[in-house]
Write a structure and sequence with these properties.
Strand order of the largest sheet of chain A: 1-12-7-4-2-3
CATH architecture of the largest domain in chain B: 3-Layer(aba) Sandwich
Number of strands of chain A: 12
Number of domains of chain B: 3
Distance between the termini of chain A: 54 Å
Helix content of chain B: 40-55%
Order of helices and strands of chain A: HHHEHEHEHEEEEEHEEEE
CATH architecture of chain A: 3-Layer(aba) Sandwich
Shape of chain B: elongated
CATH class of chain A: Alpha Beta
CATH superfamily of the largest domain in chain B: NagB/RpiA/CoA transferase-like
Helix content of chain A: 25-40%
CATH class of the largest domain in chain B: Alpha Beta
CATH superfamily of chain A: NagB/RpiA/CoA transferase-like
CATH topology of the largest domain in chain B: Rossmann fold
Strand content of chain B: 5-15%
Largest sheet of chain B: 6 strands, parallel
Strand content of chain A: 15-25%
Largest sheet of chain A: 6 strands, parallel
Distance between the termini of chain B: 55 Å
Radius of gyration of chain A: 22 Å
Number of domains of chain A: 1
Structural class of chain B: alpha/beta
Radius of gyration of chain B: 27 Å
CATH topology of chain A: Rossmann fold
Oligomer: heterodimer
């Protein structure tokens, strides 16, 4: 890409500067919080959430209200389907984007005529015209109310951020209690091969004008999670 | 823009409080008719030709005189503090969280060479092109080179302070490319041709009317119909609609990076608006410009680091979007795989003075900074002098600590005096940087670095006078005798203490010296 001489010049220069900088030992007055971090503490210092359905649901409900995420807990797949239909009807949405997944496909394809599946290559401008994007998720983090999506298994990068209303369909086993559990799950999952993982916490938001909260700055104005209870 | 005209006619009062030595407001009075001509235009541009110290003094005076603006900024900062306190209360232990976060970032810094090489190796395996840049011109040239090699014309940018630091936008515009900032705050100040006021909340100093004004006058009618009202919702939707088209049409997306993940060869980006998601997801090429100090050892560290960033920065447990990018779109030989994403991802690792800070054994922990902006939010000086006054990319206490080593202590060391040393910054820092002690260290370095001849000679004369009673007495007598005669010179450049007198009045002339009073047995 760039002329190799220039690259290696800068690379050697920066690495050389780092090496000579680090040759001087750190002043003993510097506060550093310990010479090596104890990562096992991370779970203790963060907001506590137990790994039970009740605790996770309570935390998720509280965080969702705080983030202005619409959380709908449904008893079974039938109720999930009718909930999605109601959401689409309420929007008077005619253009819906989705990706293929056992949770998503039946709900998306049965309810509308002009569904747009992103899996077989898609037109960015057409996706931008869709009012609703439906996807599943990699996981839901109860502690922070976040939906984790990956480029590999939840329809790529744009589906979950371009349409103004993002509907997430998930099952109870996808809910992890806290962030350390999320990263452990990710490390052990085939999704680790994904080029992107994103933690979505609520609808897109900004406070750049007089620090007043406005939803839908660039991404979705609405985020709805339809979550199936443990079966 | 500061309402500079308010400040211009400020004059010292000879009112009842004139003997006070404090800087209380009552020692000032405003002119009855504010002059209408603003002083030399200052719009927060970093490319100011003024000497940094002079610029700081002038701008601080204007900003500190603008009461409504100070109240506006203070209120905003207080709201952030309140939200943050509620979020911190949710933690198992926020103090232990600070310890662990500091230790994680410190681990990265202590092994920074090995960590960066580990990142480079893993990122290359992930299909990322890793570049290194020693300074600003180098990073700008490398970005332009990537643009030219791909016949790219237009850039959509998400917020990146590293690119602000090197003035990448101007370099791209000068080279004939189109550049649009997508973060709402950055877009507003780009339209106004200003520097960010606060490195987390770039447009926090502006009111809705000023923003509507920028949209009305700086956005062409071909690009968009006029904005309906000055309601924040309407203003935000106006920008949203413009940006939507830009994401689709831009050839290249340029972002910053919040964390460089060594063990995964990945870049983590924290944001609220979703603009970085679109910037890094829709255009064909994604370029990351990131400072080398953003190194974090492990992917799992994000569980704490991103939480600390959101909480300390804006009182959000996690901000809206926390995304990790492991490379460009992934597909196998048959073209199967991810449905979208950029074809190329470049990461440019930027030094630009960071190794100078690293070379200082007492200050190097300042590189732990995660740029949450919490020290600005609690700083009594920041909310009274405002962000543009600092004249640097990074404002507030952290800016005063890192700018002098990175950009020259002789030019920027004065920023360390923009502090009451109250320690609120140190207390609030999520990675426990010893900010207020560092400010003292910078002051020490500044004393050595700045020109010393005048001060040295003054101190020599003072020492000589104090050692010789005759000289002292003669001097005191001369001073008492000539005080009245010198009165017309007060406040002018010939007055040795004019800077001091600008803010305070000396008590009236004593009738006798202390020594003669003492010798007379305490009788007047």
């Amino acid at each position: 890409m760039i002329s190799p001489g220039k690259i290696s010049g800068d690379r050697d220069m920066v690495l050389g500067r780092i090496r000579s900088a680090m040759a001087t030992p750190t002043d003993p007055h510097v506060i550093h919080g310990g010479m090596s971090p104890d990562r096992s503490h991370i779970v203790d210092v963060l907001p506590p959430v137990a790994d039970t359905w009740e605790a996770k649901l309570a935390a998720l409900t509280e965080r969702s209200a705080n983030l202005k995420t619409n959380l709908i807990v449904v008893p079974d797949r039938g109720a999930m389907a009718s909930t999605v239909r109601d959401l689409i009807d309420a929007e008077v949405a005619t253009k819906i984007a989705y990706h293929r997944h056992p949770l998503v496909t039946p709900n998306a394809e049965t309810v509308c005529e002009s569904c747009y599946c992103v899996d077989d290559g898609f037109d960015k401008a057409k996706l931008e015209q869709c009012q609703i994007g439906i996807s599943t998720c990699f996981a839901i983090v109860a502690q922070t109310g976040s939906v984790a999506v990956t480029a590999q298994s939840t329809g790529g990068r744009a589906l979950t951020v371009l349409p103004p209303h993002h509907i997430v369909l998930a099952t109870a086993d996808q809910v992890v209690p806290h962030l350390p559990a999320l990263w452990a799950k990710f490390a052990a999952s085939p999704d680790r091969a994904s080029s992107m993982i994103s933690l979505i916490s609520g609808p897109s938001r900004t406070g750049d004008i007089e620090r007043i909260l406005v939803l839908g700055a660039h991404g979705p104005k609405k985020l709805t999670i339809v979550l199936e209870q443990p079966q | 823009m500061y309402r500079g005209h308010l400040a211009r006619g400020w004059r010292r009062s000879r009112g009842p409080d004139a003997h006070g030595t404090t800087m209380s407001r009552s020692t000032y009075e405003q002119p009855s008719t504010p002059p209408t001509d603003p002083p030399e235009t200052h719009n927060g541009r970093l490319t100011t030709t003024r000497i940094p110290l002079k610029q700081f003094k002038e701008d601080a005076e204007l900003a500190a005189a603008d009461d409504p603006q100070r109240l506006f900024v203070r209120t905003a900062m207080r709201n952030v503090a309140n939200t943050r306190a509620k979020t911190e209360a949710m933690f198992g232990s926020i103090q232990s969280a600070r310890d662990v976060a500091a230790a994680i970032k410190w681990e990265g810094l202590q092994n920074i060479e090995a960590m960066l090489l580990q990142f480079e190796e893993n990122a290359t395996k992930n299909g990322i092109n890793v570049h290194w840049a020693a300074d600003g011109p180098s990073v700008c040239n490398q970005v332009i080179e990537i643009m030219r090699q791909n016949n790219a014309r237009s850039v959509i940018k998400s917020k990146s302070m590293a690119t602000e630091e090197v003035h990448l936008n101007h370099a791209l515009l000068d080279a004939g490319f189109e550049v649009v900032e997508s973060d709402l705050g950055e877009y507003i100040i780009q339209l106004r041709d200003e520097a960010p006021y606060h490195f987390v909340f770039p447009s926090m100093h502006l009111k809705r009317g000023e923003i509507k004004d920028a949209f009305d006058h700086k956005v062409s009618r071909e690009e968009s119909a006029p904005v309906a009202s000055d309601d924040p919702e309407a203003l935000t939707m106006f920008a949203r609609n413009i940006m939507r088209q830009k994401y689709l049409s831009a050839d290249v997306g340029i972002s910053g990076g919040n964390f460089i993940i060594a063990d995964s060869g990945a870049i983590a980006i924290t944001e609220n608006e979703g603009n970085a998601r679109l910037t890094c997801g829709v255009p064909k090429i994604h370029i990351v410009v990131v400072g080398i100090e953003k190194i974090a050892p492990k992917l799992e560290d994000l569980a704490l680091l991103q939480t600390m960033l959101g909480t300390a920065g804006a009182g959000q447990l996690l901000t809206g979007y926390n995304t990790v990018y492991f490379g460009p779109r992934r597909r196998n030989e048959n073209g199967e795989g991810e449905v979208d994403g950029p074809e190329q991802m470049h990461v440019i690792l930027l030094d630009n003075g960071r190794t100078k800070l690293l070379a200082d054994p007492a200050l190097r922990d300042a590189l732990r900074c995660i740029r949450c902006g919490a020290c600005l939010n609690v700083c009594p000086i920041f909310s009274n002098v405002g962000g543009h006054t600092y004249g640097t990319t990074y404002q507030g206490p952290i800016g005063a600590v890192i700018s002098p080593p990175m950009r020259g202590t002789a030019q920027y060391g004065h920023l360390a005096y923009a502090s009451s040393l109250c320690g609120a910054c140190t207390e609030t820092c999520p990675v426990k940087i010893d900010l207020h002690h560092h400010l003292l260290r910078i002051r020490q370095q500044y004393t050595v670095a700045k020109p010393q001849a005048a001060e040295k000679s003054a101190m020599n004369w003072f020492a000589r006078t104090m050692r010789h009673p005759l000289l002292y007495r003669a001097g005191a007598r001369v001073a008492l005798t000539f005080d009245g005669l010198l009165r017309p010179l007060h406040g002018t450049r010939l007055d040795a203490i004019s800077a001091w007198r600008k803010r305070r009045s000396l008590p009236g002339k004593p009738t006798q010296s202390f020594t003669s009073w003492w010798q007379s047995g305490g009788k007047q």
